[in-house]
Amino acid sequence: MKKYLLDLTVVSNERLSDRHILLKLTSPAALPEMIPGQFVEVRIDHSPSTFLRRPISINYVDRSRNELWLLVALVGDGTRTLAGLGSGDVVNCLLPLGNGFTLPSSSDESLLLVGGGVGIAPLLFFGREAKDRGARVSFLLGARTASELLELDLFKNLGNVYVTTEDGSAGERGFVTNHSVLSREVFTRISMCGPTPMMKAVAAYARKTGTACEASLENMMACGLGACLCCVEKTTEGNLRVCQDGPVFDIQKLLW
Amino acid sequence: MADLNVKINNLRLKNPVMTASGTFGYGLEFADLVPLDGIGGIIVKGTTLHPREGNDYPRMAETAQGMLNCVGLQNKGVDYFVKNIYPQIKDIDTNMIVNVSGSSPADYAECARRIDALDRIPAIEVNISCPNVKDGGMAFGVTCEGASSVVRAVRAAYHKTMIVKLSPNVTDVSSIAKACEAEGADAVSLINTLMGMAIDIEHRCPKLSIRTGGLSGPAVKPVAVRMVYDVAHAVNIPVVGLGGIMTAEDAIEFFMAGATAIEVGTANFIDPTATIKIRDGISTWLDRHGCKSLSEIIGVVR
Asked: What does the pLDDT average to over A68-77?
């Protein structure tokens, strides 16, 4: 898929929680083709302590409004600089990068999309595209606390939403792997994005139940283009580049 | 328009901007974003006689105005390069140069010999300065004897333009450059990365898997300019300058210090089009200062 280096314009920058923003970007020209699970390398201007671009997954592409949404967790100076952007500001983006999730090939499929923390971000776009292909989509979303459950209404428009919080303030208490839906329902495929311990636990569940499963990784990156070999993950095929050979990997390839 | 052509031995560059090995893949990774034929030379990823898996993750840590890496020469080996990658890059209309590394002089020489046979590879860059591998790499680049042993072996096996990439992790880089020149190197390039370390204070451990790594980016530029200046005054072969070049003005510093050409490395990660912008910026600078050719400013700082 062709990659572009684009100056995108901020449409809005909404604070979703103490630690998250939703950045909506647009362009005078039609945004490039993108698929769910791909990411953007965002250049961080005006942050002296930030040197490299920041890889951020594509939260949603609203074709009717020509908008690209980035859901950003504020973890350091770079992402906090993004929180300061306002409508009309310009953000230099390298996109679309990486391979993306496996889209359903038939309407018989029943997908479980599992997200933890800001790892829910790519699942919104994926859920939309999967639903458009006629698949049945369910979301299993985990957060530390209710206020960090993001975009819930948007997820509910696309399918069943199951929730866990670590403090029990919403949904079932505990981690996503404790949720009762996993013992009640059967899915044809699980796609997930979130903290590594969560994904390893879900991968163990998928192996036990013989469910196809893929994980989106977020190893630290420099170039995002497959050139520097900094973001590698050990796999059954040796060290593979998360930015280019991933970020989505079938769990059978991972040494988890 | 000022003349940007330069020569390194028999190697003609249409402009003095090359890509630093390990920062631009095989060029193909950037093909959507950069007109590859607009770059003076593309120095591809470090290649070794045998495949190498490289070091464990994490391999990178961002630092103030730079980054540390300990990739460790991950590559599929020279035979894979010849069979699978060379056919994809041989028709790119620029100098495709292979960076060669090894764990013994014989390894280097055999790897170079296999590349010598490739028509469309006009030069190699011999890497005696990788700080991230246990065997070989920088070990050869930190003594005159080590450098001589590799350059001598490669010179006997390789007949086209040989650039030797030097390590800054030495007391006297000029003496190493002179040793390379004496054994028949056609040019030297410097600097490779500076050995460094960063610590995750929350977890009380190094940020990199092998504890140390090589520092690159603007943070190292003054060190690089000084070393290029020293080496340019010590040898009679061309010097290729690199280390933290982000802009055309950075590149001009290296030319004035004595570099005939430059390499752009880490800048490619922040701006994939950095090479082309730097090329155009050099041209504009020369025009603005009434220079008819780049050669007018090479080594002007005495």
From this structure: 97
Q: List binding-site positions of A.
A: 54-57, 78-79, 223, 228, 231, 243
List, for residues B217-234, the tens digit of each pLDDT value.
999 999 999 999 999 999
Within an 8 Å CB–CB cutoff, is residue B66 touching chain A?
A: yes
Res B137: pLDDT: 73
Contact A74, A80 (CB under 8 A): yes
Could you please state the CATH topology (level 3) that the domain comprising A4-97 is classified under: Elongation Factor Tu (Ef-tu); domain 3 (2.40.30)
Strand-pairing partners, residue A173, are A165
Residue among A47, A225, A237, A254 with most chain B CBs within 10 A, to mutate: A225
Question: Of B72, B71, B211, which is closest to residue B135 (Cα–Cα)?
Answer: B72
Phi-psi bin for B31: left (phi > 0), alpha (psi -120 to 50), beta?
alpha
| CATH code linked to domain A110-216 | 3.40.50.80
Q: Are A36 and A101 in contact (CB under 8 A)?
A: yes
pTM, full prediction:
0.96
pLDDT at A106: 84
Q: Cβ separation of A3 and B32 shorter than 8 Å?
A: yes
Within chain A, how many helices (H) and strands (E) appear?
5, 15
Query: What superfamily does domain A218-256 belong to in CATH?
Result: Dihydroorotate dehydrogenase, electron transfer subunit (2.10.240.10)
For residues A222 and A43, the answer to whether their CB atoms sit within 8 Å is no
